[in-house]
Amino acid sequence: MSSPTNINLNDLLPPPKPDSCNAEVQAGIAYPDVNSPGNWVRDTSLCYRYPPVGGIFVIDDTFVDPYQVSLSDSGQTLIVNRTSTITLQLDSAVPAFNVPAQGVWNVKIKNLGTADITIDPNGLLLDGSAVSLLLAQNSGFELSTDGTGYWTYGNFGGGGGAIPTAIAVLFADAEVPGGTINGSNTAFTLANSPDPSGSLELYLNGQFQTSGTDYTLSGNAITMTVAPSTGDSLLAFYRYGSSGGLFVDDETPSGTINGSNTVFTLANVPNPASSVEVFLDGMMQRAGVDYSLSSATVTFTSAPISGAILRAYYRFISATAYNFVGEEGPAGTVNSSNTVFTLAHSPSPVGSLKLFLNGILQKRTVDYTLSGSTITFTTAPTTGDTLYAFYRW
After folding, report:
1. What is the value of pTM for the model shown?
2. Domain ranges of the chain
3. 3-state SS string over 238-276?
């Protein structure tokens, strides 16, 4: 009878399974232990511990909006306890560990505050869609990745909270506010309440109106400081919460500006057509009055004169989510000598920046230059001038 083989019982156990947090993983190929015949060992130099160690991380009102959810948050439970809304922005590149056996990135998110949370996929897909998710009070879920996008699962934390719902940006383009233009009426009503309120661009006869000076906004109610005169044109562009689109910013339509040509062509067919904003020398043109649009062709009623500057902004297909800034007052002193002003963010793309001085759209490279978030004017704005910026980043 042969003598039994000496077996290390530890080697009968399956190798440690990679977990989503705090798992010690042993790698390498087992080989005979020369110092102990019959036993098998693994190279312990390849042992590692999956970071991080898990735990709870509380996001309260002291945190700046948005909060960037990153690789280092993996394995943690993010408890959001705020009285104001916040966006949890996911990485634009799917988080992945250097060693695959370290596991798959995941976090748990729970809303214990009184305000909603927006989960922004930051250009990737979330549950197969490029739009954000809204997480209401007392609801939560686990968030992980398949290596190409993000997925939610479960209803972490219970509490009877609402299931997260997809949200995206809805646009109102060239809307004529309800109300009589008769020289005495100052009250007008939008079909929806702009959200955010700063996304509202209101034009009177093509002239950009300044919130708080030319009008006030409460919900969907506009109150003009001075009643528009009979025959005036009032148009509103704003966001309020279906899908957005690919944006074209600061495009110069193709066509000769020579005082006789009236036909110009856009690079894409605007969708919807009402999203088109055409500016001639900084003044917004009125669709159906100053020009007509057919597919991608813009036909002017009167030919732009030689030297005129023509710019167009529009959307053309359904697409992803963006960060928007509306009616921002750039930092800097308006004192007739200062020419340098700073935005809160760097516009991306740079052409998305619409900069208005006293309601007139300024022309980039002519009236000002842009470098990162820094605006440098060719001529210093005069004391008392109003300066507002709209852009994406």
Report:
1. 0.42
2. 1-167, 171-239, 247-315, 324-392
3. EECCCCCCCEEEEECCECCCCCCCCEEECCCCCCCHHHC
